[in-house]
Amino acid sequence: MAVSALTLGACSKGGGDGNSPPPPPPQTGGGGDNTVPDPQPEPPATPAYSDIPQTDEEAARFLTQASFGVTRADIQRLRQVGYAKWIDDQLDPAVTPVTTTLDYFVRHEASGIHRHQFGSRERAMNWLWSAIKAPDQLRMRIGLALSEILVVSEVDGKGNLETFRNARYQDLLAESAHGSYRDLLEQVTTFPAMGYYLSHAGNRKADPAANVAPDENYAREIMQLFSIGLVQLNQDGTPKLDAASQPIPTYDQDVITGMARVFTGWTYAGVRRFNNQDHESYVPMECHPEFHDDKPKTIFNGIVIDEGNDCRKSLARTIDALAAHPNTAPFVSRQLIQRFVTSNPSPAYVKRVADVWNATEGNIGKVVKAILLDNEARIPPAAGDAVFGKAREPLVNVATIYRAFNAQYEFPNGGTGRIDWGFWGAGTMNDHIGQESLRAPTVFNFFEPGHRLPGNNGAEGIQAPEFQIINEATYMSGVNYYSRVADYANTGEGYVVQARPGPTLNLAPLIRPVEAGDYAAAIEELNLLLMYGRMSPQTKDTMSAMATGLAAQRASAPSIAHSLLVLAVASPEFAIQR
Fold it and tell me: What is the pLDDT of residue 8?
């Protein structure tokens, strides 16, 4: 099917005018519906692997999926405790300290720095440095994944006015690893960054005399992108079809109108007038009953929201309905699988995860645990399987390089502890790798979950979301960026962190074997930490030949180590996670 033909109008932040026609109304009842009831939940599949990784490579493969990059210490820990306990420990604040992005800014503000002196560039760098060094790796990866589903973006925003707010939004998403998707959806709905981005802050009930109608942006996107999607789904994520073998839409324009009426009466906390804007507050928005539509509102599946002028109860009932909709579990589960494991999960994989979602009332941490421990995730694909896997996200690639070689950072500004990376491209990552924290170009994220590679003879190929931002140009600019990241490294005399415009890598694990002429050992270190042992013989031969040639030209050991690292991150084995 061509899902793109069913897309609704994008909101104003999404690159369209929001006025495109909706899909045709869902067909209900009668003999014209040939949908098949979903099968009953099946017991979880018995793991077909050992809970304790049997090799460093197995451990590194898991960590590639579940963290921002592999370290020797994490491999050792994982091989001691096993997959399940590693996940449980990561999601238990009593075991693994919780990283918060907002604390950085609150701490520096308390030291006398005015909040307007912070900007989106510093927020993005601080978040990335936290992702590199944070102990709660899985929790922060969950936060990143959710930020690409529940999108808020600083593009076209208010710059440094929003820094604290957006830092808090990132923390909110990461915190949800301990809770339910239903509760997160309600928190996101009332969060001021979302209220501004999708323009439902200050949304008022209709006033025909004043030519006022409720804004439909958020009403549309909370369904289309955040919960139930465009078409009705089976629990395995496949579309339900009508008698004409066509997908059945989940809602129509009347539903959008009803939903927009639900999201009236909300605005920023503490504003003097209802329609005033506040770009700095990061506390939840407030309900103003006098501006809420108090008439009955019919939403999807014929559900009527009739809570008078109580906008809190109206919102809660609507969020309950979205969370309970049979689409939500497979729709969001499939996207989470794409973010962690593979772009084209089998329907059976999606259903197993959706079953866990339904059994745990959408507990995000337990759903992600099911994703990572599924047989389809843990058992490597056959060599000839061209479908399993995913392109690595460029933002994760940067963190992976830093983590693999234990990056350290000497804070400038007299040791104030403020992050200020000044190397080429540090503050403009979007321009070089196509991705940067909370800087998606539209509400549809940097890439859409349904983006496909072109197939033969114009046919649609497999789904490959990240390839929407990875092409010939961004691949080369990305490699150049990774090379610049690797420029700041120790020189072999010991790991001395210097005051540089970025973190310093410790390349000693590469330099030592290069100095001894053991290029194979250096290549194997890269193979483990960057590719969990899947480097091809051809790539190894190419790297060895390059190192030998550079040595013949009397290149220094640090220079050869740097070149080996850059060639490794330019390889297809690094680009594609399998």
Answer: 29
Please give the DSSP secondary-structure letter assigned to residue 360. T
- Pinpoint the alpha helices (H) of 236-363: 253-262, 311-324, 328-340, 347-359
pLDDT at 15 over 50: no
Contacts of 160 (CB under 8 A, 6+ apart): 115, 116, 117, 118, 119, 120
Task: Locate 116 and state its tokens.
Answer: 């307007």
Residue 305 backbone dihedrals phi, psi, to 5 degrees? -100, 110
Q: Which residue has the tokens 């983006």?
A: 451
Tokens of 184: 């997160």
Domain range summary for the chain, segments of one domain joined by +: 3-49+91-378, 57-88, 394-434+471-577
DSSP alpha helices (H): ranges in 190-327?
Answer: 192-197, 217-224, 253-262, 311-324
Supply 76's token pair: 């050792």
CB-neighbour burial class of residue 338 (10 A; exposed 0-12, middle 13-18, buried 19+)? buried
Structure tokens given for 535: 């480097």
The whole-angstrom separation of Cα 438 and Cα 435 is 9
Which residue type occupies 511?
A: I
In the block, residue with structure tokens 């990774």: 482
* Tens digit of each residue's pLDDT (9 = 90 or more) over 178-197: 999 999 999 999 999 999 99
User: Residue 341's closest CA among 387, 384, 383, 382?
Assistant: 387
Helix axes of 120-133 and 163-175: crossing angle, nearest 10 degrees = 30
pLDDT at position 564:
98
C-alpha 13, offset from chain centre: 19
Alpha-carbon span 497 to 295, nearest angstrom: 64
pTM: 0.91
pLDDT at 23: 38
What's the CA gap between 291 and 86, in Å, rounded? Answer: 48
Q: Could you read off the pLDDT of 534-569 as tens digits, one per residue?
A: 999 999 999 999 999 999 999 999 999 999 999 999
Q: What is the C-alpha to C-alpha distance for residues 266 and 311, in angstroms, rounded to an integer?
A: 8
Strand pairing of 297-298 and 304-305?
A: antiparallel
Tokens matching residue 403: 């983590």
- Cα separation, 529 vs 402, whole angstroms: 11
